[in-house]
Amino acid sequence: MRVTISRKAHFNAAHRLHRKDWTSEKNDLVFGKCNNPNFHGHNYGLTVSVTGKIDPETGFVLDVKVLADIILEEVEIPFDHKNLNLDVPEFQDLNPTAENIAVVIWNKIRKRIQSDFDLEVVLNETDRNFVTYKGE
User: Fold this and answer.
1) Any idea what the CATH number is for the domain that residue 99 is in?
2) Structural domain span for residue 9
3) What is the pTM of this model?
4) Number of domains in the chain
5) Where does this protein hold Zn(2+) (predicted)?
6) Sign of the C-alpha dihedral, residues 62, 64, 69, 71?
7) pLDDT, tens digit (0-9, with 9 covering 90-100), for 30-66
C-alpha cells in the first residue's frame, strides 16, 4: 500500500528572466516585463509530496516534521527574501523560470528522501500559474 503525504511551504523571492547570450531586444520579446533589469518578485507557494509505503512501526510514510525540516533547509532558508539570479548559486547560469526553479527544488529535496519514495514538487508562481515536476 503506497500513500502520498504532502507539505506546503512558501518563500518570497525576486528574479529576472534573461539570457546573457541574447540581445536586449530578443530578451524583451521573449520574456517581456519579466526581463525587467531591476528584477521583480513573487510570493511562491510550494507543495512537496512524497509517496511510499507506510512504515508498519510508525504508521508514517515519512514523518511530516522531517519533510518540513528538509524543505526549510533546502528551499526556504536559501531562497526566501533572496534575488534568485544573484544570491542563489544554482541560478548563476540557469534562467530562474518557474520550471527551472521547480527542478532545482526537486533535485535538492531528492537527495534527502529515500530512493524508493516518489517525489513531486508543485511550485505556484502566482495564484493562476504553477509548475509540477516529478523527476525524469
Assistant:
1) 3.30.479.10
2) 2-133
3) 0.96
4) 1
5) 15, 40, 42
6) positive
7) 999 999 999 999 999 999 999 999 999 999 999 999 9
